Amino acid sequence: MPQILITNDDGIEAPALLDLESAVSQLGKVIIVAPDQERSAASHGITIGQPVVYQAVASNRYSVRGTPADCVIVALMRIMSEPPSLVISGVNRGTNLGCDIAYSGTVAAATEAALQGIPAIAVSAHPSADYAAAARVASRIAANVLERGLPPDVILNVNYPLEWNGEFRLTAQGRRSGEPLTDYEAVKSGYVSITPLHINRTAHAHFEHFATWKMG
């Protein structure tokens, strides 16, 4: 049975953790490792220069005094005896769209998993959305990832709207509302937005531009 690691940036007491655990428990053995308090907008910060303390709060739940990325690192290095088949970060209270992705602890936790070679999904929802429904959507996406995998160094950033129209859209990360086929527009129109994000930030398309610079 696959092992699924769940984390978040809203903290170990976030109610949406229970919704997500319930939704994905049919897919595998769930282990929850989450911050001991809310760490929203922590981005990809990690703790250095001091110990990262954690404690078991239930048989499969661990509280970490650290960031979402810390949680993934601690889970992989100190809590779990073998790497999980999948990491799911969320369900976050509030969407992570466009430029907010850069600040998101939810996305950062999934990114840290990908850096460790583990498929990962970040799941966020409108603050007033049905989190149980968002968790069920996450479970559907997780089932596909477990079956089909993800490309190397790619995570999925999933956003659930206030009122879901029952459909999904594959989207690009937007910069502002009004652009077509972006995460913003999809969620605004009632779709679940699925944005594949590549953790390698090299601007390959612009190499030619920089090749013309005179550096000597």
Can you characterise this structure?
The structure is a single chain. A nine-stranded mixed β-sheet has the order 3-4-2-1-5-6-7-9-8, sandwiched between helices. It is 29% helix and 24% strand. The protein is an alpha/beta fold and 216 residues long. The chain is globular and about 60 Å long. Helix 3 links the parallel strand 5 and strand 6. It has one domain: Survival protein SurE-like phosphatase/nucleotidase (Stationary-phase Survival Protein Sure Homolog, Chain: A, 3-Layer(aba) Sandwich).
CATH superfamily: Survival protein SurE-like phosphatase/nucleotidase
Number of helices, where a helix is a run of at least 4 consecutive DSSP H or I residues: 6
Would you tell me which CATH topology applies? Stationary-phase Survival Protein Sure Homolog, Chain: A
Shape: globular
Tell me the strand percentage band.
15-25%
Low-confidence parts, pLDDT < 50 over ≥5 residues? none
Alpha-carbon distance between the termini? Answer: 58 Å
The major pleated sheet works out as: 9 strands, mixed
**Total count of strands:** 9
Helical content class:
25-40%
